[in-house]
Amino acid sequence: MDIDANGLAFISDLVRTRAAIVLEPEKEYLIRARLEPIAKDEGLLSLNDLVSKLRMAPFGALHKRVIDAMTTNETSFFRDVAPFDALKEVILPELMKSRAANKSLNFWCGASSSGQEPYTVAILMREQFPELASWNIKFVATDLSSKMVSRTQEGKYSQLEVNRGMPATLLMKYFTKKGMSWSVNEDLRKIFEFKEMNLIGQWLTFPKLDIVFLRNVLIYFDTETKKQILGKIRQNLSPDGYLFLGGSETTLNLDEAFERVPVSGTSCYRLKK
Ligand SMILES: C[S@@+](CC[C@H](N)C(=O)[O-])C[C@H]1O[C@@H](n2cnc3c(N)ncnc32)[C@H](O)[C@@H]1O
Question: Ligand 1: does its nearest atom lie under 6 Å from the Cβ of 12?
Answer without folding.
Answer: no
